[in-house]
Amino acid sequence: MLQSASCGFGYLAFSGLNGMVRGAMQDRPPVHPARAKRMIFLFMSGGPAQLDTFDYKPQKGKKAHPGSVYNFKQRGESGLWISELMPETAKHADKLCVLNGMHADTGIHAQSALQLHTGDRLRERPSLGSWVSYGLGTESENLPGFISLNTSRPSVYSSSFLPSIHTGTPIGTNGQAMAKATIENVNGTHLPLSAKRRQLDYIQFLNRNHEAARPGDETLDGVIRSMELGFRMQTTAPDLLDISTESPETLERYQVGKQKGPVGTCRMSDFGRQCLLARRFAEAGVRFIELNHGSWDQHKNHRRDLEANCAATDGPIAALLEDLDQRGMLDDTLVVWGGEFGRPGLTPGNGKNETGHNANGFTFWMAGGGVKPGFAFGKTDDTGARAVEGKIHFRDLHATILHLMGLDPHSLTYRHAGRNHRLTGPEGGRVVREIFA
Amino acid sequence: MGKRRTTALIVSFLSLQGIGAAPSSPDSKAGHAFFETKIRPALVAHCYECHSTDAEKIGGKLLLDSREGILTGGESGPALVTNKPADSLIIHALHWKDDLEMPPKEPLPPQVIRDFEEWIAMGAPDPRTGPKVELSGKTYEDGALWSFEPVKNPTLPAVADKSWPRDAIDHFTLAKMESLALSPARDAPAETLVRRLYFDLTGLPPTEADIALFRAERIMDENDAVEKLVDRLLASPQFGVRWGRHWLDVARYAESNGNDGLSRNPTFPHAWRYRDYVIDAFNGDVPYDRFLQEQIAGDLLPAESDAERDRQLIATGFLALGAKPAKAMNNNFEMDVVADQLDAIGSGVLGLSVACARCHDHKFDPIPTRDYYAMAGFFTSTETMWGLAGNEKLTAPPTDLHVLKAAPEVPPPPWWRESVLVLESNTGIPKAIPQPKWKAGTPLAMGVRDRKETADAKINLKGDARKLGEVVPRGFLTAYNEQIDSPPISKGTSGRLELAKWLTQSDHPHTPRVMVNRIWLHLFGRGIVNTPNDFGVYGERPTHPELLDHLATRFVEDGWSVKRLVRAIVLTRTYQLDSIGPEAAAKSDPENIWLTRHSRRRLDAEALRDAMLAVSGQLDRSPADGSIIRHRDILVNLASDGLHEPSRHRSIYLCYLRNSPPPELAAFDLPAFNKVLGKRESSTIPSQSLFLYNNPFVIEQSRHLTDLVLSSATEDGERVQTLYRLALNRTPDPEERYRAVELLDETKRETGSAELAWNSVCQALLCSNEFRYID
């Protein structure tokens, strides 16, 4: 069904100049009532240690075993267990829906991160944000439907074989200062804006003739749309990226520019700025916003680096949740926190400070967007080594997210190279209805 | 998942044992192709979930993941009756007839069901049979190890349209098209072909004079004119710039280390010598086997002159250029360097992810960890020299460098002072600028040499250099043992020379296949194997296996000459097809796997910049001398944007700092150069539009183009003509011309500046798709 809708839009795109401008990325109705209109994905790259953050594993029995090595407390009215490393996020415990039964196929960073983002761990496939953009279009006429902040690799925002207009727009590169991160080349004063528009009309006149002589090439259509979107971004994006209009109190709350470090694997990501920008983009109608902090791959200095990673992200995330809630946006904004896998626990008292990768059981959490608040779902075994209850594979996560966004994960397909593709792959994913509010 | 799958394969083969030759059916190549393109994907997508050995519960005891399974059937009996779709249970089920509704959620599209009917009608050809194959302790589906089999020299397939092929290559492509009932597009018009050839062979657009010459020659003799043009382009020094750049992607070439994981990024001030070596090698058409030998063991090859010695030492920079992780707290640092070297050879030369076997036997390919350490011994016996690397002991500790003999000394100018200072993170004091032990200006090169003490490596258990296992004698991948010779390693040497020889023996199944596939990819936009760095079990299968072998055979027989192979390919009819093809083929084959037309391609970052410089008259086609960082042995960390300087030279000569790419290139999918790259991405994102609208480089080129256009004539209509000829190699049609003049007039009125108005029109053409996409 979506297939034909997509063709319809493609057709509309050429029905006239204004039709082209609008039709390309028009807001589309969801296939069933959506619980979330937009999503903010807090990608914690490197594999966050769930047993020291959101999956409490106290010692059981006489013999010491891997588990949590930080103190946990029950928080809020819901009594969710959250560790001392996340004191600010913990204040929002009653907004969180913690998924302790996550599992994935591989403990290889690149492959698992790719699978988390695209459903496939080996081949280049459209990313989650691109599928959402493809399924729903954008609410904004002047901004892309999908923005990727502080991104580390193009595959996380690639639209692959989906029309390229659904590619995410990167702002800032992982490892470079977020304070300076902007949409490159968004400003230019060589011509007045009206003259630029006239120039673009001529470019698009050429491009449409060029495309008409080359039927069947979707890329060319993608470029035409992308030229329009880029043009409109010139007027909208600079203001959105300028956070100087925010009050000092807000900047303080988000801890913009306050990250200490880098410390070990914990890189400078100015996660505060990312969270604040995410809120501003969400307010402006961007459909899918991905944030990136890493690396949580704290092998050898587990405690030091984990503490740094938590310190860098805890306050900003709390501020984001608070602002979304206060603005009434949490109801239709799905916030998702997690990484490509988790880590095995340390064993208290044995002096070790090194952890590896664990794809067999780890934690995600969600907030807002139609999920149960103050709720924990799924379980790992006593050592946190593997998910044993309420298991959620990335495929299931994808199916659940798409469903919450008003899309049918089974029929959101795109025909490419002779067969229909979908985010959840041939196996399909399970919509985890148990976590719906 | 991978693990599960391997097990499943073994299981399904065990179940096949005891079955003799497959039942007779027209298992022609075409039949198998039909199965692979139409049936297998549908089975995998819609049926395997419940009907494969991988399924959690097997539905109705029916297995559809083997030929035997389909023929034997499940609880309801055989799934199909060969040649009789109407009597076949599977067809009934697909039609949702007789209470049997498969797949259960919704019926498949009618076309797919028709495919199944057609397939059964043709005898249900199914290649999922054959003996199980065992290699290096693993069991494989027949055909999975195709790339390990010797290169055959296939006979030319017969084609129906005998007048079509121009070269043997055309026989293979046409035969494939004919077997799929597809027909090729018409030949590309001359203007299209000329632009294509210039960009593909030199990365530059043709000039007006180039086109005039081609036109004149074409009047004399049409076919001869193309050959002459191709020979001119192959002889041009710009060929090496273009094709050298392709290899630099494979070689993960960059001029700084990149973020070491701790945000330190030391420069490699001598890396550019390797860049120049590569450009010269492609221009000189150094045979590919020799080219590899120089890069892997140039220091061990005899040299007749200082210049030759220098050249060969510089070549070994290939092994030293990789991005290194921090040494600090990293016991595995030395083995990380080795892993990068093995990956450059594995992915880059062999098309195999050898590096995966560092911690465990390769999950998919027949590469046990023992083999990894057998090869690692070559490099643990080798001293890798990246230089001072900013003198940061915590990143890559300073090493020696090759001192060149014939290269001139180039000391920094007297006024030279280091202006980029990095502060110590804990004290805030500027870091000291390292003082090299060499006299300023000494010609130096990155590279490798044998260690004084050479030794075999020990297995690092789980890739941990502190947990050592048994010693593995230096050697090669055992998967090849029965096929190709493994030369003995000379005592007291690292063995890299033997490694280089082993890789380049004429019957090596991977080396020539991988390289001809790279060449093909750069000329067609898609490899015959679509995963150019992975010819392993989980890489994609060749779309034209016989063509691949034909090319590999020809390449080796032709003395591993890249230029000769490029020449042969671009003179084929297949290469010279129009990019606009029959609409049916475009729909059924959007990726153009079957080559019914030429694939339109976007200019990559370098070609776009070079083309803009070229048409605005600003391009300096001469090689740049060295690099802007040749005197800067510093940590640039991440704030290195300030280092880049505008240049009129070709893009290859810009400063390729990792994590801080040249701003003029960054927008168009410039890779990170951290690992071997076979194919650039080609995304379309609004940030690219913004680059075209606002980047100072683009605006500057439109100004230069304005100057050219304004001085060419006095009348605006004529000037528009000039602009179109310069930018697009054609004349504008009346509407294009009229609208351009209209844009000029309006912009003039608005800004009061004729020059600004012209800038706008010139920029418009540089931004247009016609400028940026090559048919």
Can you tell me about this structure?
The complex is a heterodimer of chains A (437) and B (775). Chain A has helices at 2-12, 17-23, 87-90, 109-118, 128-136, 193-212, 218-241, 248-254, 271-284, 302-326, 394-404, and strands at 38-44, 72-75, 80-83, 96-103, 146-151, 169-173, 288-293, 333-338, 362-367, 375-377, 379-380, 387-389, 392-393, 413-416, 419-422. Chain A is of the alpha/beta class. In chain A, the strands form four sheets. In chain A, strands 1, 4, 5, 6, 7, 8, 9, 10 and 13 form a nine-stranded mixed beta sheet that branches. Chain A has a two-stranded antiparallel sheet with strand order 2-3. A two-stranded antiparallel ribbon of chain A has the order 11-12. In chain A, strand 2 (72-75) and strand 3 form a beta hairpin. In chain A, helix 6 packs antiparallel against helix 7 (218-241) and helix 9 packs parallel to helix 10. Chain A is globular, with a radius of gyration of 22 Å. Among the domains of chain B are: 2-142, no CATH class; 694-774. In chain B, strands 1-2 form a two-stranded antiparallel sheet. In chain B, strands 3-6 form a two-stranded antiparallel sheet. A two-stranded antiparallel ribbon of chain B has the order 4-5. Chain B is built from 28 helices and ten strands. In chain B, a hairpin with a 7-residue loop joins strand 7 (457-460) and strand 8. Chain B has helices at 2-14, 29-46, 48-51, 67-72, 89-94, 110-121, 168-179, 190-202, 208-220, 222-235, 237-250, 272-283, 288-297, 306-315, 333-350, 369-380, 496-503, 511-524, 545-557, 562-570, 583-588, 605-615, 686-694, 696-712, 716-728, 734-751, 754-767, 769-772, and strands at residues 133-135, 138-140, 382-385, 402-403, 444-445, 447-450, 457-460, 468-472, 601-602, 773-774. With 775 residues, chain B is mostly helical. In chain B, helix 25 packs across helix 26 (734-751). Chains A and B meet through strand 6, helix 6 and helix 7 of A and helix 2, helix 21, helix 23, helix 26 and helix 27 of B.
